[in-house]
């Protein structure tokens, strides 16, 4: 078993040793989780496994990672989520606005099995399933927190989707978020000053969630409902791939 087992309060705790996280670059807020006073880290280096404590007795590895403007989030194969770095908008999901220079587990999602994560400039979004789910059907749900997300703790978010909609993917831009349902629908919310919400117009101020596929101008004015299979956000734009391979 490739796990370092340590005794802590009479419990055996696993550490991810099957894979590693490498960080580099700007480090003013501790977003690289590397020690030292230097702010510009020019060489990628791996983080020591002892920074992370996970669930018991598993062959652990990292399965997803995302970076915001000054914070980082990573998902372990046991469904745990760790965050570190800047926290001025509650983007670390710990209920505070205190930065963390070392990774901290997001305990508010302890009852969820996190599958993926995305970071905006100052917010975070994750897709997770309830841990009691037997796996026979997908129950992936969206959790959001940080800037413009209504909470500095992870909160379950349906937006324009019906409750219990299965969520396939989420992607965060600088100040907007796009979520993809399992049946191929997109919804977007946040700021729209450059048209990044895909509504055929620009607008000022924070915008609520709407389903993109309901708009006639979406995907070259195609009148029929378009099924999307993948989405990605840049800082102020977004792109999606449809089921037939169109971008």
UniProtKB/TrEMBL annotation:
Family matches, as InterPro entries: RCC1/BLIP-II, Reg_chr_condens, Ub_ligase/GEF_domain
Q: Where are the RCC repeats?
A: 19-78, 79-130, 184-244
On whether Transmembrane is a keyword of this UniProt record, the answer is: no
Keywords of the record, alphabetical order, are: Repeat
A Pfam family that the UniProt record links to this protein: RCC1
Kindly provide the name given to this protein in its UniProt entry: Uncharacterized protein
Q: Which organism is it from?
A: Triticum turgidum subsp. durum (Durum wheat)
Q: What is the lineage of its organism?
A: Eukaryota, Viridiplantae, Streptophyta, Embryophyta, Tracheophyta
């Amino acid at each position: 078993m490739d796990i370092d087992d340590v005794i802590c309060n009479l419990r055996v705790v696993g550490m991810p040793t099957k894979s590693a996280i490498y960080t580099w670059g700007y480090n003013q807020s501790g977003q690289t989780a590397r020690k030292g006073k230097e702010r510009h880290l020019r060489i990628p280096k791996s983080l020591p496994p002892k920074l992370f404590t996970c669930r018991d007795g598993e062959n652990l590895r990292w399965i997803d990672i995302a970076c915001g403007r000054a914070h980082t989030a990573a998902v372990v194969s046991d469904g745990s989520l760790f965050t570190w770095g800047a926290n001025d908008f509650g983007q670390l999901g710990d209920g505070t606005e205190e930065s963390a220079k070392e990774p901290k587990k997001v305990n508010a999602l302890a009852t969820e099995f996190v599958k993926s994560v995305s970071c905006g400039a100052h917010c975070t979004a994750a897709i997770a399933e309830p841990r009691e789910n037997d796996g026979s059907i997908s129950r992936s749900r969206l959790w959001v927190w940080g800037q413009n997300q209504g909470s500095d703790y992870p909160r379950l978010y349906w937006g324009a989707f019906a409750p219990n909609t299965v969520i396939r993917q989420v992607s965060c831009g600088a100040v907007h978020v796009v979520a993809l349902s399992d049946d191929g629908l997109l919804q977007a919310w946040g700021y729209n000053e450059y048209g990044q919400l895909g509504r055929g117009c620009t607008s000022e101020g924070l915008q609520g969630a709407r389903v993109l596929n309901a708009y006639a101008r979406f995907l070259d004015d195609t009148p029929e409902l378009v099924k999307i299979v993948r989405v990605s956000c840049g800082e102020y734009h977004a792109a999606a791939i449809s089921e037939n391979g169109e971008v």
